[in-house]
Records
---
Amino acid sequence: MKLQEYTESKHNFEECMKCTVCTAYCPVLQVNPLYPGPKQAGPDGERLRLKDPFFFNKALKYCLNCKRCEVACPSGVNVADLIQSARIKYDHTPPKLRDQLLASTDFMGKLARPFAPIVNGVTGLGVTKTALDWTLAIDHRRSFPKYSGRSFESWLKHRRKEQAAFPEQVAYFHGCYVNYNYPQLGKDLVKVLNALGVGVQLLEKEKCCGIAMITNGMSAQATKHAVHNVEQLRQAVVDKGLKVVTTSSTCTFTLRDEYPHLLGVDNASVRESLLLATRFIYEKLEKGATLRFKPDFHKKVAYHTPCHMEKMGWGIFSEKLLSMIPGVEFTLLDSNCCGIAGTYGFKKENYEVSQAIGEPLFAQIRSVNPDVVACDCETCKWQIEMSTGYTVMNPISILAEAIES
Amino acid sequence: MKFDSVIVGGGLSGMVAGIALQKAGQSTAIISTGQNALHFFSGTFESLLSPDKRIQTLFSEAGVRLHYSPGVRLTPMGTFREAALSLEDIDLFPTPQFARKVLIVNFLGYHDFFSSFLADGLEKQGMQCRVRFLNLPELEKLEQSPSEMRSVQIARTMDRIWEKVVQEIRVLLKDEDAVVLPQVFGLQDFSVPTRIRQGIPARVIFAGTLPPSVPGIRTQILLKRRYQLLGGSYLMGDEVTRAHIHDGVVHSVVTKNLEQHYIEASHFILATGGYFSKGLVANPFQVYEPVFGLDVDFKEDRNEWYNPAFAQDQPYMHFGVKTDASLRALKDGRPLENLYAVGSVLGQTRPEFGSAAGQAILTALAAADKILGL
């Protein structure tokens, strides 16, 4: 008899035995005394909130949604899901204009891309940063990701025929960052997959995964994106029988886990076929595929596991892939949050906290002194580059650089 | 993915086994469902009563310094227990009376350190005690969320302001020859406990707090770092959901995070711990082992699980996975050829003596030796 079926609570919160282990691994609690901490904000608070929504505490907004409490929990409580679900359920404060702008990454991308050189110039100016700080409370010390003049989608569309010629095909959920800010990562992926005999297709029409909307109080919009994206993925996976690869750990995590857990959007038909490219490539190599590496490649690489990668448990594929490149001197950095957490660190009120959270990681990077930091998350990349001056590359880009073209 | 050995469970036992195997040149992975019982570690290996060079070397190579000096240790409740081997910052005394006069120092607002229990206990041993509270503005910040005034949060502050604490204690100190402080030092800066001892002109003793245990977390960090430096793959926050077993041999395991990507190995070690970490699960009818469905030694009659005298030896603490003499786990009465059970999942031999940590290490090393054919 399975007793748990009759007693299982939402997000498993009844399993919490108050051991306090999560509080030792919460990066926010270490630097922000206004945050009640994962145990209090999660399972402890849930008990009270179920009794009366009056007990909802607005300080839950300080949660980064990094999921480190869940990774640490010995009892399988989905602490961060409890916290984010409570925000969705009880916090009806309309998001500020700033939060809406920060969260609308594909909308902003569409707007900015045609004017990329101007936008990039303007957002880099001190005067713009000051103005954004005053008007929107976007911290003036932040550097902004640059926009690319040509979108990745348009680049790949021009290569549709050439890609279709490969014997094996995958679809690529590129995400906003690759499309508007850094198409080079997408091109690197195409290079590596082509070298493995795999052609790359776009989905019919992807939208932003919506993670920034979830954390910025725009769950209704996020749900619309989720429903749209799941349908797009379904067409690729179920109708065309394709695997869908990704290069962003957070997009992947959102599509696979946040959709069903936080937004209640069922993705069961596509979840198994949605893979980070590092996992897809590792599995191909494990089955006997080979890549031709440059004989004179040399790089000292330090790998940072992004929080959502830690939660998914797939960092191992990036680690193994990087370590197998001849000429790579590999270091695994300690498990620490970089502090940016998507849009969190861009907000003026979070800047100091964000930098303080990241400091142990930055200090370790400086002491390892690698040629490049590897990481599968774009916002970690901005944060680490801005805070340490070291270049950060997706493992796929390092792989692309290491193979013969 | 294929490894020489895969260890299910990432606590003390799992990490010791992993380090021993990596050191011998194997490729291994540790799969750990969240953090482990080291977060409740007293800092003393109470059941290891004889000196063991191998254990001390293994720990010191990881940066965890141990000292061997048979005697007693001070518990957080002010009582004393026999012990011989402990972390360097946890004192062991030849006899309970370690001083004439003792100054017990706590921090205002910190409720997880039982200074008056300690004072009562020490006075019973004939030591005069004075309890004082330090009121530090640096800790007031933490008090804004009173539920989070915990050992780890304080330890993070102490890594920065320990010199100030030393100065304040020097002012408080009268004619006491010993100072007792909560174990909230040296979480990230491991040199802090030693430097505090050097700064205070009396014997400094660090006594246990409610969890999380700061010396325990430090030990966890260092052992995990050592394991990864040796090339081990530590899969934190993952959980084995199923195993593929054919003809008495475990071929691979399936995990919650990696799903269809099975993890294969020539040898497996089960180090999932006791009831706390769900290495053993009890329901109203039975005690079972959830990962491999192994045979568990427990009493059929549920009334025999407990001793109504709460503080007495509890039979359920002794329940555990059955093995053969080589620690190979039994399933349906027969040993699985390549699965070894270690640590608290075996049930505790002497729970009343705090046997868990010592048992975790000894069985882990024994299983590693079997795998290596030593």
---
Amino acid sequence: MQTVKMVITGPFSSGKTEFIQSVSEIDVVSTERKISSDAERVKEDTTVAMDFGRITVDDDLVLYLFGTPGQRRFDFMWEILSEGMLGFIVLVDSVRPETFREAKHILEVFKAYANTPYVVAANKQDLPDAWSPDDVRIALKIEKSVKVLGCVARDKETVKEVLLELLYSILENMQAEE
Amino acid sequence: MALKGNLRDFSTTQLLNLVNLAHKTGKLSLDGQSQNALLYFKEGRLIHASTDADEGHLAAMLFKVGRLTQEQVNTVNSQGSSSDRVMGKYLMDARLVSRDDIVQGVKDYMLEIVYDLFSWNDGTFHFEQDILPAKDRITVPLNLDNVILEGSRRIQEADRLQDELPDLATIALKITDKPLRDVKLTQDDWRVISHIHPRNSVKQIAQNNNMDEFQIRKIVYGMMQAGIVELIRP
């Protein structure tokens, strides 16, 4: 059986935990804590170490999803979580352009960890003020060869589409290396 | 789909770059600390600009850029028409200005407003898709590449540039496929372009041209936003 490790990363409150929760077949192993900082109180809880989820695609393929903590003070976990990853997803909060710079920074950091495929998921597309995936691409200066996909983290179908796109890129990459 | 945000997080340069690259049509409202501005775009080109100070009517525009006197403005306004097209025809019939004067005057007025926006570091923006100015307004299409280049040259805040281009010693430049034919590059821009090579860091390019870090950052940032160059990171 083949296992594929994917890392789901992105700025604080971009929807990483929800993204994993909506598709994982096991209860997500989550390390959420109450938020102590007033400045970051846009939600109640935040991931402090990682989230872990699993999806069995078929008898031969299992995806392991690792979600990174969004707050900068836990960024020491990023490199640890990136070990052995075959691809990563950068989740962008499409309604908070103030987090785009952080998203770009995270993307560059993960690119530097490993030369693996990645996709950008423009989350919260169900909200009226969401920037479109095309606009997010320009705002983050994402190369044309990289997919930028719209998604809604609590909508299992759109999450599956994002995961599948990354999976295809990973499989292409593996075939090219063989 | 609306675009909303704050200029603290997404600058005027980045906004215009987005409109330019995505060939957007619509209205961009900017609410600054002391002034508000309205810009209209059609397929990625700036076609009209106004501020809440004078609402962008033709007589006010031409007065502001020195093509009409206050007395002439008063005469025009006494005609009672609020349509810029009617006003333009009256001005030409009265031989106060030519058609070229109107086009150039509107253009100068728009540029004056939009260049000023590059110095706004705070304020909210809101882009509404597919909204165009009223039909009676006179519009002049302007290529945003040149506006972005010139606007970036006017940025005076070293911090913002430092943020965009942090370590000049480790980044190099690559020229994109964008045609340079319609872009107005200055002598300094060309001097920088002539030294672009994957082995030359931006810092080396600056040294070769006797430019300080602020100067080179302004030039590189402007060319980046106009899509002329890309960064090569280590």
